[in-house]
Amino acid sequence: MRIGIIGGGINGLYLAWKLSGKGHDVIVFERKKQIGDNVICSGLFSQRILDLIPQSQKLIQNRINYANIHFPKKTIRVDFSKPFFVIDHSELDKLVASLAQSQGAKLFLNQNTTEIPEGFDRIIGCDGANSVIRKKLNLKDPKFRLGVLEIRGGPTSADFVDVWPCKTGFSWRIPRGSDVELGRIANPKEIKTRPCLVSKVIPQGLMVPKNNKVTLCGDAAGLTKPWSGGGVIWGLYAANMLLETFPDFNKYRKRTKRFFVPKIILSKIAMKLIYFFGNNVPWVLPKQARIESDFLL
What we know:
Layout: E1 2-6, H1 10-21, E2 25-29, E3 44-46, H2 48-52, E4 60-71, E5 74-87, H3 89-102, E6 106-108, E7 122-125, H4 132-136, E8 143-156, E9 160-165, E10 170-175, E11 177-186, E12 198-204, E13 214-216, H5 232-245, H6 249-280, E14 288-291
Parallel strand pairs: 1-2, 1-7, 2-6, 4-9, 5-14, 7-13
Antiparallel strand pairs: 3-5, 4-5, 8-11, 8-12, 9-10, 10-11
């Protein structure tokens, strides 16, 4: 099949890599001038990234085993069942782009797509939180939070992150090996931006169209973890579901909803309870806990 993928981020490139490897004619349209240009996403990925993209092993900068969650009157240590790795997001995108091209995928850069392209058997929108493809399908926008971050110098080899919950999100500190990443995710009204900060809107609210020729994946489909805003692993899981059901996009839609919707709902409930107890009756919560890295429930 002739397949058009809109967006050369991690999800679009991963799909281009895998679909090209299956013999399809794949073209990726990316609006930026180069792959990995000005990527501002946090570079924290669970161990699952190695299962999905084994070649990413060489990009690891640091290993994170647990998080300290600092509520006003109590700090809780949360151990991860699968460790997280710090990886430069730009370099990861470039790596997957090279894998896609090695399989024959064509990458067209500096392409500002404003309409759903014609002449393709299937179209996959991977064009981010403000997806043009989603808008052209007349789907409503997901809810948005705002993420901001900055990188500060100073090498550190600490194996934990610090997290400070706020009303609608949290702030974080991630040791990246050669430097430190500081960030915050919350509703836009709760965040004050500064010139040193880079920002990005983060969608939340899964939406996959009832359309067997055009579909969405990753941030374009609003697929991010409710508690952290991270979308890479969830997006790649959805991409694998698309690959397994391809070319039946309606079957892909049903499978993603069956898998992700219960996790989204239960995770939101769990996070509201944790925030309530942590801020109001912290003695109810244990001093140490253990969670699954990508799927709380």
